[in-house]
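User: Hi! Is it possible to get a structure for several chains at once, not just one? Here's what I have:
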Amino acid sequence: MSAFLIANIAPLMFVTLIVVLLIGYPVAFSLAAVGIAYALLGIHLGLLTPSLVQALPERIWGVMSNDTLLAVPFFTFMGLILERSGMAEDLLDTIGQVFGPVRGGLAYAVIFVGALLAATTGVVAASVISMGLISLPIMLRYGYDRRFASGVIAASGTLAQIIPPSLVLIIMADQLGKSVGDMYAGAFIPGISLACLYALYTMGVCAVKPAWAPALPLEARTLREPSGAGGTRSLLVLTIVAAASAVAFAHWKYGPDDPTDEMLVVATSVGTGVAFFAAVLNRVFKLGLLSRLAERVVFVMIPPLALIFLVLGTIFLGVATPTEGGAMGASGALIMAVARKRLTWKLMRQAMDTTAKLSTFVVFILVGARVFSLTFYGVNGHVWVEQLLLHLPGGQLGFLIVVNVLIFFLAFFLDFFELSFIVIPLVGPVADKLGIDLIWFGVLLGVNMQTSFMHPPFGFALFYLRSVAPAKDFLDKVTGRLTKKVTTGQIYWGAVPFVLIQIVMIALVISFPQMVMVYKASEKAFDIKKIQIIVPEDQSGPGSQPAGGGSEGTTNIEQENAEKALEKELGGATKDPGSSQTESAPGNQQDDVEKALQKELGGAKAPEEKK
Amino acid sequence: MAWSVARRSVADRPRLHADRPGVVLTLLLSLSRLIDRITERIGQGLYWLILITVLISAANAVVRKAFNYSSNSYLEAQWYLFSAVFLGAAGYTLLRNEHVRIDVISGKLSPRARAWIDILGTLFFLLPMAVLIGWLGWPVFVDSYVRGEVSSNAGGLIIWPARLLVPVGFFLLAVQGISELIKRVAFLMGLIPDPGEKIVVKTAEEELAEDILRARGEEALAAEIAAQATKPDGSKR
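Assistant: Yes, the chains can be modeled jointly so their relative placement is included. Here is the combined structure:
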């Protein structure tokens, strides 16, 4: 019996975990309990030393001092404040007017606004609810196909998961031991491509089934000129002028050697500034150069663009770390909500309450996962998983396909936090051993997990759309016609084409790693800075974190600080000379604590195995 | 709900252990209510730290850029405060039943079966885990306090208050677990309505939906949403 246990303890532990999780008790506590139970069993069987459980407080400490996790409350808080600031409503109303005249226009507007909201904050529920309440009724009024309309709304809402800054990417970067800035840079093109694929699908629908997505009739276009003209030409001219000034500025200021992301951020800001300046002049002096539509578009685009600058811009310029970017965004959202007189004490308390609960359960899943992995690594579970995955046929490609299929199906039951904390630490090291770039791997899995928000019947985006879509036939207020409800079946079927698009996107990212690899383009520029920054850090006076050095550098310093402290702690606590300080070759993305613990475990275990 | 009221109204009918648990349970239930109140206070006090952390973090980035001044103490203060939130509010989150579950199976079970799951889970998963970690965390704190341990980073903060958070947080979690246990048992005996139901305050999502509809002058629809909004199942987020 115990021989069987000893030989198969890792697989048994994994199976136990699955069974226990399915019982339906909170994931965090189940994980920790399984970890502790198997630790006791392992000690009883002589596989592990009793000192293993002594390491538990250190595991918690490791989670506490991981300041990347601060991004969870920051971005959640930002999203909660932002969703109530009225920004999304303004955007949907105005952009709907811009694209309205073309066939499928409202769908394009939804995709565009979905991507824009995704780039400010990563809250799927808020995007889906806003679009479901604002765009869906208009789409139904003018005869959009119900399945198509609900599908495009649900899918665009989930863009928040993959377009930076998203919590998925931050957590993925943390679990894979990579820089969040790199993960953002890598996810950028896949995220935008995905939005483009949605638009392409819309275009296809318009071509094949024009009745599914009609253009808005004239009476629905409220932002027309007094003369009756649409005003799109004026908007087009303004866009071209703004874009031209951005490109011109980029050419004048930056050479080919300068970091691309910084150039993009600054040039975009210049272009936006030009448009804003023109709109303000036009407004103040009543010049009449711009159409009402163009002026309105500029004014509604400023808040989201300012927020994107505050969050992503400061990260790519190296002013803020990705975590601080979240705090900057949250402060920006607060300021915006105050300016729009939308901020009440009630909203504030509610946002803090929700943030506290959400970040608590997220971090506790991580706490549970770390307690679990302490034992799991102790009984060499990671070696078992590695053997299992390394011997898949087809090398890199075989591994990627198996992992993606696995995650696709797990995502029916687990949400992305659970997947990131339980599954990613197991498959990440194997991917690394197979020579897979971990940023590429992370972005790939990010796109994959995004589908979990969309696939019927548990997809969260579908769930929120259901809660706001008309559930019974209603009298349309504008046309006065009885309009049919949207059935749950229509919402489910509407999501299916977009899930398929998602799968296509996964295949594309696998076939064209270049989409992600562009993040490396900016790395060369960073390398020099890294060295420059780390040197003064050792003297470590105040102000030892110069801000000029790119997001990379700053992040690294923080991580290193935390890691050093941890190492020191661990070394002191275990009182085992030489066990924790030797660093093995780089390339293994388990963090230092993990390594030290493993080593300690390995060292402690070896003699026992001999006898 | 109706069922439990019916059970209570016929409490005088002879039932197995009908009297003795009555007295004990009344006491236990008031203990549970007291724990719930304290937990709620703590949770609602702690969430202000979220705002403070946001402001410290944003200010730190701005000041570093603008005045080229920074100190590790600001960085450390952020994760100290956040640790206080997530460790201190673990019990509060449990009280609100917001710790994520995988409810593909349990969602289909009866409230009584779910109460059993919670009882067994609390007894065999939550309590041993919380007690053990809290127990092991205490000497780490004492050691840190005695040594006057200070962060190894330059300008770093003193460490023992953060070390104290581990035993305190897991203690609060265990205490709230006991309260949940009492409530589940009382529910099974028909003394209180299902405590597993999420406390019916409006979710942020429902508030948002109402807000948008009101802003667009659709009071009637807003009221409808408020009335019939389906509850999130909590399994996905």
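Chain B is about 70% helix and 0% strand. Confidence is low (pLDDT under 50) at residues 1-19, 229-237 of chain B.

User: Great, thank you!
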